[in-house]
Amino acid sequence: MISQQRYWNPVLETLPQEKLRALQLKKFKNIFQWTYDHSKFHRSLYDKAAIKPKDIRSFEDLRRVPTVEKSMMRDIQRKDPFPYGDALCVPIEEVSNFRQTSGTTGQPVYQPDTWQDWEWWAECWSFILWAQGYRPTDRVFIPFGYNIFVAFWAGHYAAEKIGAEVVPGGVLDTQARILKIQELKCTAMMATPTYVLGMADTARTKMGIDPASLTINKITCAGEPGASIPTTKKRMEEAWGAKVYDHAGATEIGAWCYECEEQPGGLHVNEAFFLVEIEDPDTAEYIEEPGRRGKMIITALDRFAQPCVRFDSKDVIEWSTEPCPCGRTFRVIKGGVIGRADDITKVKGVLLSPSAIEEVVRGIDGLSDEFEVVVDKVGDIDRITLKIEIVKGREGERQKIEGELKDQLRLKTNLGYVLEFHDYGTLPRYDVKAKRFKDLRKISGE
Amino acid sequence: MAQKIDLEEIDTKIQSMKKTAEELNKMAESFPALYRNSSRILASIKMLELNISDIMDL
């Protein structure tokens, strides 16, 4: 019986490490040649570094290939061929899917995918869902605002692909979603950890429903690290009476790693589809050994419309020292994605950069230069409080300023804020480096 | 009892499907339904190649 099979792909997921390395090198040569031949942006980058496809014969060679950062992708976009710019490797008419990054570090990066790339997204997620016990008998509820962000779109397509029944909970409110889960006896769910906990709280406090009495037996999380944080995972599992699994992915990369049913305290990297390298952020030294943290450089080996070749993701990871009892040979990153190399943080599942808030505040006529951001939790839900001041003499314009500020924050950061107006001159002033961003979730151990 | 996986035979059938889908795709210049559906089939066949064919020469 297919449903009793442990692996989505019993060949690739148990391939010996030396064969996985050989597969990765072969595929890297292929995607590098493709990218060199079809992307003006990448070709220019590689020509400047004096490296060509024929130079790639070993892993040592490929580490000479320049990395790409998000800011570089941002710079080339909104140009011809509109709106993707010259990293697009296929005729524009072959693009079937548009998605974008959340844009909290500046302009969002647009991501084109062909239908084949979209099939690939679903394939990546099929590895995830099968490893987490999803089967054709499952009825999967997806309480996700289907939109321009990739998030659970690929999870939806993969759930269909593996043969499960999908219930898209798009525009329903939280209470309606809970009632639909109850009515349809859904068995699985995908959501951010914040929302998983928030739904449980709503069920208990507003509806008198114990979420553990519902039929959800497994939950796949994304967007935040919570499902890899033991205390948060435990809270979610106890609230829902379900197993909670993590995975990691990104718009410009793909869904590159996943937790399996064994919950080994880390995530398997899909090493048949991705090449993950770890680099010391200070020395750029390549890190091979387990137990040593560094930032991830990742290549999506089979994505073609806008390739992801040696992308500097800023994610901090480390290889686990322990093999997973599930039998997969894909290596495990211990504790999932540990953090980010820069100061970007995730709030309500959205990447938030303090500089994006600064950009908004400083762009509003009538606000002073000073502001402060406090992120904390109310119950299990993230809350962002933005403290600002109106310059003297403009107090009468508060309503107008507040409206503009709310609109710009929503537009530029995709998040809602509690706005606190303080008298001019009362927020802290700094002489050297300002500390405007306070993440109280970290202080409380989250 | 677990079924034996004959990768060579599977790959041979994948390549055969690919050839057929490519031929249909080439015959579809004035036939949108044939063109788009054979293109989608080719995308699915690519997933079979990623899952099986890509390891045949390792």
Structure explained in plain terms:
The complex is a heterodimer of chains A (446) and B (58). Chain A has 446 residues and is an alpha/beta fold. Chain A has 2 domains: 267 residues, Rossmann fold; 94 residues, GMP Synthetase, Chain A, domain 3 (2-Layer Sandwich). Helix content of chain A is 30%, strand content 24%. In chain A, the strands form 6 sheets. Chain A has a 5-stranded parallel beta sheet, sandwiched between helices. Chain A has a 5-stranded antiparallel beta sheet with strand order 12-11-13-14-16, with no helix packed on it. The longest helix of chain A has 22 residues. By secondary structure, chain B is mostly helical. Chain B has a domain of 32 residues. Helix content of chain B is 69%, strand content 0%. In chain B, helix 1 runs antiparallel to helix 2. The longest helix of chain B has 20 residues. Chain B is elongated. The mean pLDDT of chain B is 95. Classes of the chains: A alpha/beta (446), B mainly alpha (58).
Termini Cα gap of chain B:
28 Å
Q: How many domains of chain A?
A: 2
- Encode the helix/strand succession of chain B as letters: HH
Computed over alpha carbons, the radius of gyration of chain A is 23 Å
What is the arithmetic mean of pLDDT of chain B? 95
The CATH class of the largest domain in chain A is Alpha Beta
Q: Reading side by side through the largest sheet of chain A, how are the strands ordered?
A: 4-3-5-6-7
At the fourth level of CATH, the homologous superfamily of the largest domain in chain A is ANL, N-terminal domain
Gross CATH architecture of the largest domain in chain A: 3-Layer(aba) Sandwich
